[in-house]
Amino acid sequence: MSRVKLETIKKILTSEYWLIAALSGIFFFFFALNRGGVEVCIKITGFFLIINVLVGDYQIKKIHFGYLLTAGICTYLLLASLLVPFSQPRHMVILVKMLSIIFAIHCLSRKEIDDRITPLLGAVLALSVCWQFAARCLCNMPFGTYANPHYLASFALLSLPLIVYFFRVNTGWYRFIFVPVGILDADLFLQIGSRPACLAITCGALFVVIFLAKRQHKRLGTMLILSILAVLCATQYADIVSKIIDLILTLSTEERLQFWADAWKMLKDNTLMAWIAGNGIGSVRVFFPKYSVPEYSMFVFPHNYFLEILYENGIIGAVLVFGGLGFLFFEVIKRTKETGNKKRRILLKCMIVTFVCWFIHCGLTFPFYSKYSLYPFAFILGVLLVLVDKMDCCETFVHERLRGNKCDQVKK
């Protein structure tokens, strides 16, 4: 086979459009259809990621420190779990799939992508929202394509900041498409009435307004949040305010408090080695029901990321996971304050809200090592790491230019 044909095949196989299609498929199959096609798309994503590593320009040794840290933490969690008998392989595989999504997003970011990709990604998001709304309102499916209200609440919650982003950064007429899409998404969110989701979006929005908004925007943002709460209270829309008040009044009898107490009893029975290295990924599902009171024996996890990871991965794993998340969070906040690029700053703020929403809502409703937790996190972490990576590349380029200018002046 001639060299020209080999180069053509290589160019086709390493084309960015394969990764765009595969990642879009993962998003749509998971968030809109909730069908098995997501697993096929993840395998396709992994295949083209490997192709780019082997014959493309994607070189692992040149990736940003954040990716090495992420891969290192995940590798430790997997290897440590292999050494204990209670680990569940099907949950460990989800962690590997999360990594493939993260690195595929990074690989895609290194390619020359046309500016038209932003409206395309926005279209996938808008279509997913419309699909879920139609499933709920037109097909009489109370939780959209999901079997649990928290799954639909998670999608609606995590979509809202991204809809705001696409409306803010697009300049054409199609930006106004995101107005009705945002209304439909907000209606899904409110009609489901997930109290952890309400707590999450409130905390995320207030954090950005208080700590990241410019001085002249702080008052406007606060007034907007208070106005939305006032309208919901006055109209009793979706009875959401009553649900929040009920949560406050019955907080002492909240079932999650019982879950946490049961998880602590389970932790107290740990051996010294289990305290240090954990019992393995998925082990909570094996032992938690044995410690639950009879009326909650059907629940298999404590609805608390910290307690779950502490039991499954030990103190070392908890320090690595939460230390890594904390490092990323404060690094992103730092970059948000430093960047002068308006679009990038808007995206960083929206992603911070999304990250906070994911951590609070998913942390209180899903197991950590589940697809409903790690697949959304893969997209959030993938985008945040790309933004940090691109800002570091820009800083390196500027420093090199300044150093070059100084050298030229010395020569003169």
Give your account of this protein's structure.
With 412 residues, the protein is mainly alpha-helical. Mean pLDDT is 89; it is low at 396-402. The relative contact order is 0.12. The protein has helices at residues 3-13, 16-33, 37-55, 65-82, 89-109, 117-137, 149-169, 178-192, 195-211, 215-235, 240-249, 255-268, 272-277, 283-291, 305-338, 342-365, 371-411.
Helix and strand layout, with pairings?
Layout: H1 3-13, H2 16-33, H3 37-55, H4 65-82, H5 89-109, H6 117-137, H7 149-169, H8 178-192, H9 195-211, H10 215-235, H11 240-249, H12 255-268, H13 272-277, H14 283-291, H15 305-338, H16 342-365, H17 371-411
Helix pairs in contact: 2-3, 2-5, 2-6, 3-5, 4-5, 4-15, 5-17, 6-7, 6-8, 7-8, 7-16, 9-10, 9-16, 12-15, 15-16, 15-17, 16-17
Question: What keyword list fits this structure?
Answer:
mainly alpha; 17 helices; globular; 412 residues; single chain
Please give the share of residues in helix. over 70%
Number of β-strand runs: 0
Distance between the termini: 53 Å
Rg estimate, integer Å? 23 Å
Strand content: under 5%
Structural class: mainly alpha
The global form is globular
Note the total helix count.
17
Low-confidence segments, ≥5 residues, pLDDT <50? 396-402
| Element-level helix/strand string | HHHHHHHHHHHHHHHHH
How is the biggest beta sheet arranged?
A: none
Average pLDDT, rounded to a whole number, is 89
Entry summary:
The chain is mainly alpha-helical and 412 residues long. It contains 17 helices and no strands.
